[in-house]
Amino acid sequence: MTLESVTVCPICDSNSFHPFLTIRDYTVSQKDFQLQQCSSCSFVVTSPRPDQDSISEFYKSEKYISHSGGRKTLMDKVYIQARSITLKWKHELISQFKKNGSILDYGCGTGEFLHFMQTKNWKGSGVEPSETARDKALDLTKTEIFEHLKSTKDKFDVITLWHVLEHVHDLNKKIIELINHLKNDGIIFIAVPNHESADAKKYKNFWAGYDVPRHLWHFSQSNMKQLLFKHGLHLLKTEPMKLDSYYVSMLSENYKNPNAASLTSMTKALLSGFQSNNLARKTGNYSSLIYIAKRS
Q1: How many CB atoms lie within 10 A of CB 249?
Q2: How far is 33 from 27, CA to CA, in rounded Å?
Q3: Which of 20, 34, 67, 211 has its CA 20 to 30 A from that of 141?
């Protein structure tokens, strides 16, 4: 494994960082990784981190369900049930801005969202670097699933990133590439975890939303707005993903108390998710947020 350090903040270009938290990779390696916070804009980054040639090793686990599609554990089943609910919700959210057209799901995983949008008469394409997930998506959607964004020159009415932006190594370069694939009146939907949520503050270094080293960047609302503005994008709306607080709390409880009875952990997680969403009604700091933007 080759590690690289983040020396320049991709949000504000500062080169001054200080330690933030030490987080364990509970999914694959059981190794500890350091989070650093920008001293200027407070953006949090995983650093040092595996480089692009090494990171794939940290996705090779049946626990990483967005790539494996697994249905073995209770968490898998909860994830799949939540996904089935959110597919319809995501379509309804997108329909507030675009009724139909072409859509690119960047980081499409095993293709369930694209497939659902196809049933609603959208023309879909996907980008997925994981060969395992890409093959599953291709089999499900029977449409173009690219390994890299550069493999297509098409422009799209809608581009979606459902918990993907936090995974990309070159943050600014990727935003530019995505904008270049967006039609002039196109809309981009970017969902990312929010480390300023109440559940993040409760679980701290056990918070599953950090998901190191797969999550390279850890956004706050202000950081995300800064990033969009930096690239000439106008924020139309910020939408909460309320189910995420429950699922992330379940994972976090398991990380914090792995030997606890499943019913006990489930009860604590449900309470945590409810409390987090309730507090977020005032602050806007939900566990995950969708940023909906267009060209300025």
Answers
A1: 29
A2: 13
A3: 211
| Tokens 């792995």 found at | 258
Segment 260-282, tens digit of pLDDT:
888 899 999 999 999 999 999 99
| Among 68, 87, 82, CA closest to 28 | 68
Residue 151 burial (10 A CB sphere; 0-12, 13-18, 19+): exposed
Residue with tokens 């559940």: 199
Round to whole Å and give the CA distance between 43 and 37: 6
Q: pLDDT over 90 for what percent of the chain?
A: 88
Residue type, 208: A
| Cα 87 from Cα 82, distance rounded (Å) | 9
Q: Of 85, 84, 126, 86, whose CA–CA distance to 102 is shortest? A: 126
Average pLDDT value for the chain: 93
Find out whether 83 and 71 touch, Cβ atoms under 8 Å. Answer: no
> pLDDT tens, 186-200?
999 999 999 999 999
Among the residue ranges 9-13, 79-83, 251-255, the one predicted with the least confidence is 79-83
CB 160 within 8 A of CB 103: yes
Q: Output 30-39 pairs: Cβ under 8 A, ≥24 positions apart.
A: 33/212, 33/213, 35/210, 35/212, 35/218, 36/6, 38/9, 38/11, 38/12, 38/14, 39/14
Dihedrals φ, ψ of 173, to 5°? -60, -40
Q: What string of H, E and C letters represents the secondary structure of 183-196?
A: EEEEEEEEEEECCC
pLDDT in tens, 154-196: 999 999 999 999 999 999 999 999 999 999 999 999 999 999 9
Residue type present at position 223: N
